[in-house]
Amino acid sequence: MRVVIGEDGELLLDTLTCAxxxxxxxxxxxxxxxxxxxxxxxxxxxxxxxxxIRMPPxxxxxxxxxxxxxxxxxxxxxxxxxxxxxxxxxxxxLLNMQEDTRAVGYVTxxxxxxxDSLLEALRRVRAGEIVIDPGIIDRLMSxxxxxxxxxxxTAQERRVLALVAEGRTNxxxxxxxxxxxxxxxxxxxxxxxxxxxxxxxxxxVNIRVLAVLTYLRHEDxx
Amino acid sequence: xxxxxxxxSPGWDSLPLRVGGVSLLLxxxxxLARPAAERVSVLMALCGAxxxxxxxxxxSVPVLFAVGFWLSYLYAGLLGHLALSFPNGRLAVRVDxxxxxxxxxxxxxxxxxxxxxxHARYPWLDRWQENTTTDRAGSLAFCVVALAIxxxxxxxxxxxxxxxxxLSAATWALVVAGATAAVGGAVASxxxxxxxxxxVLLALFAITAGLxxxxxxxxxxxxxxxxxxxxxxxxxxxxxxxxxxxxxxMARVLGDPSxxxxxxxxxxxxxxxxxxxxxxxxxxAASGRCLTPVRRRGQELAMLAHDAALAxxxxxxxxxxxxxxLALDNARLYAxxxxxxxxxxxxxxxxxxxxxxERHRIQRDLHDGAQQRLLAILVMLDSTRHALRVAAADDSxxxxxxxxxxxATGLGRATEMVSxxxxxxxxxxxxxRDLAHGIYPSILVEQGLAAAVEMxxxxxxxxxxxxVSAGRWPRDxxxxxxxxxxxxxANVYKHAAASYASVVVESRPGRLAVTITDDGCGGAxxxxxxxxxxxxxxxxxxxxxxxxxSPAGEGTQVAVTFPVGDAAVAPAVHTT
Lengths: 222, 576
Description:
- By secondary structure, chain A is an alpha/beta fold.
- Chain A contains ten helices and six strands.
- In chain A, helix 7 packs across helix 9 and helix 8 packs across helix 9.
- The longest helix of chain A is centred in the C-terminal third of the chain and has 15 residues, at about 180-195.
- Chain B is an alpha+beta fold.
- Helices cover about 65% and strands about 10% of the residues of chain B.
- Chain B has helices at about 1-10, 10-15, 15-35, 40-50, 60-70, 75-85, 95-115, 135-160, 160-190, 195-230, 230-235, 245-255, 280-285, 315-325, 325-400, 405-440, 440-445, 450-460, 475-495, 530-540; strands at about 260-265, 270-275, 280, 290-295, 300-305, 465-470, 500-510, 510-520, 545-550, 555-565, 570-575.
- Chain B has a six-stranded mixed β-sheet with strand order 9-10-8-7-6-11, covered by helices on one side. Chain B has a five-stranded antiparallel β-sheet with strand order 3-2-1-5-4.
- Chain B starts with a helix and ends with a strand.
- The interface of A and B includes residues 16, 84 and 143 of A.
């Protein structure tokens, strides 16, 4: 797999490059700022670009900006954005890039410390899937609520909802849980009945992830 | 016929002019004799005297006749000059100088032209009704200049300040009336109107000129009347130290709404205006304000900035300043205190700002230094673990038969140790990230209050509902609102034993309202705990207000409002 890494911390950039190469990833370019990323992507034609959200020149949201520009010029390239704080607003911005956004990942920067899981995210993004950090979903689902509609879900339904929010397709959820796609669809119907979460059973992955994120961020039955 | 009789008698037709001339000459001479004589007095005397120059035309000596003929209308030019330069005798702007020059040019030039072209020689006066072309041209030019001067004065009246109008109203009215009569006279003579009409208009012109001194006296009388109002003014000022009221009262009595007061600070370090803002006398003087220092006990304690016209009403000013004496002292104390308070407030705000900058620096150092380095080490540990696992797997494949049990156990233990180190470091990095975020919430600066508050309630130990208006506010307002919210929520978690809390941030015209409510035990007191005191200090530093409602057993509500320059108004977003 051909990967370009955009990360301004020199030590982390090198270590991450080594670690990925150790697992057989072909790191075809290193970039340390927004302009460097854009140039490197043109030059090296990677399959996936890893983007730190904060990079020079302003150290604000260069990672998202880079993602938006790369998607516009080279829509076939997968994008994996790393963020310190796993802020849902950024995830929503990424998912809203296109009508049917795909091949996009948004994970916490701490995930690079677990190269296997980073690798899995890279593979899924290359395969055109959407990847949202489980940590973000976990945080949103465990947020304290006065009357928690999530309490109405069974343990299995909660896992299904979380996996949907992480960007899995029905097939992906089924694989993860070791059940059939039919079972997953049944769970989704039940979740829909209990939460009134209409778009959770749509096939367009980014739309249903957005629906779940919005629901989790804003739902408080109080 | 009467008209005929009048025109043939040089004594009667020129009577109004002579009366006006004498009146101007006398007023000019009398005011010249006073100590505070002004240029306007000189002009008046010259103007009065010049009305008699025309009499030289009765002389049969050619030179005298010529001078008399040339200068017989000089008085009109002088009158124009006088009107334009009233009340101080100076022509302040270029337009006025140009107009005055035109006046002289026409008054003398038309006569010289007539002398040359029409060969005016003694006894010219017997032939004066002939009305030649030169005559008409002269009248026309005269007419244009008189109109211009009249128009200029009307314009000036419209822009005049109240003290200026009080002093000059009567004079300017007379000048405009005179200019009208002059224009009428000129038109009449140019069109060959009946001699009687021309004479009447000329007489009117002369009479208004003669009345000018009376107009002047009227102005002075009105200034004196204003002085009489000071009695009520003194009563008004008793017991009121607010400099703004003093200023308003002085403006009323002096009839100048633009009056401003400035006070020397108690420590003598500078001047402040009535709102406690720094005041620079040089700047005020440069912007065309007239400054009058006020002395008390031999020291310059205050300063009055006012319209230039008031400077010529010094007696009125003196009376008002004397009456305001004690009130000025009080107002000065008040203004000085206000100024000091403002400085303290500003320095407190700067301190908060500096603290925030310092937090930002620490956060950046942590982020670029320790956090990056630890994350890199985490990756290294992960790679090591991976390498160890690969080595163990290779061993088990390659040497399945002659397994080196010791080596396998060693590898297994090393993997175990590295995994533990990895877990520990992961937690340490998480802790460091939270710490850095607590020190400086970068999300707040980048994404705004709504995102930052959402982040805060993600980690809340009890349910918190937040409704934050979308949109951005000035950075210091957002930062203060954010810390108020975290401080208040920390109090809720620590003391309130609440089952839920709510945060509402609303944009209102000119301010931002932040309300934190809980359903806990209540009974909180402002200033009792460190938390609430910090909160109060922070809000007070930026001129905001805190309201605390915390009846025992009924929960607590902290309502804070921050002043905002121009508040962003946007629809609310509901957030859990």
